[in-house]
Amino acid sequence: MTWLVTGAGGMLARDLLLRLAEGGEAAVGVDRRALDITDEDAVREVFDDHRPTVVVNCAAWTDVDAAETAEPAALRVNGEGPRHLAVLSAKHGARLLHVSTDHVFAGDAAAPYRESDRPLPRTAYGRTKLAGEHAVLDLLPGDGYVVRTGWLYGAGGPNFVRTMIRLERERDTVDVVGDRCGQPTWTADLAERLVALGAGDAPAGIYHGTSAGAASRYELAREVFRLIGADPGRVRRVPTAGVPHAAPRPAGSVLGHDGWAAAGIEPIRDWRQALAAAFPALRDCS
């Protein structure tokens, strides 16, 4: 089995490649300089060179606000790029795992979104990521996997948790939005599930790769301060309206995890347990 991981410069891909190396798997990571997934000829060359049996697409346009004024450019990365990967995966008989986002939903549901719920993105970013999902599932009905995630953090790149660790040192108080709910997810936990999907016999389709439980950014920041040993009261709750964005943010982007159970794979643990396990490495690199 040979793994090809795109977007290898990102924190999820880094944890995935580390996990594969620890498991003795043959894996090739390509960052944006090594492979522009919007270039179909370049994708073809990489497939011909490495002959992957499992492809994990971690490459993406992730600037949510910038996508509002550059949707065609975001679509090339988030929609056309995955299509190129799907076409070549089908040609080579490879399994394709495509990392997507909770932003494909409207973010206004009272209950966690199920894998089967109808997407209704409200942003350019969400629309472009949904286009990538369709490409993978349509072209690879038996070997295409869409893994939706959100609120990722890890030691391999900038993220909210590492920012809070830094701000605790620099400021007396920190203002954090308290009226949006999501699922903080450690990239190492998600990487383990990607390995299970790529190497196992789980059915193709949609999976929700987020931690169990839910929290607001405010609650997450307070937990970070608690783990540091600082006073969580130094974190002050502010409304989303006080932090303007070009693209609207979902008020509730909580995902359900029925797909893992149906595939016989343990869902990701509670976000508080994961954060405590990740914290030593996060603190050392922040």
TrEMBL record:
Protein name: dTDP-4-dehydrorhamnose reductase
A molecular-function term among this protein's GO annotations: dTDP-4-dehydrorhamnose reductase activity
PANTHER family associated with the record: DTDP-4-DEHYDRORHAMNOSE REDUCTASE, METHIONINE ADENOSYLTRANSFERASE 2 SUBUNIT BETA
Family (UniProt): Belongs to the dTDP-4-dehydrorhamnose reductase family.
Alphabetical list of NCBIfam families matching this protein: rmlD (TIGR01214)
GO cellular component: cytosol
EC nos: 1.1.1.133
Function recorded in the entry: Catalyzes the reduction of dTDP-6-deoxy-L-lyxo-4-hexulose to yield dTDP-L-rhamnose.
Keywords assigned: NADP, Oxidoreductase
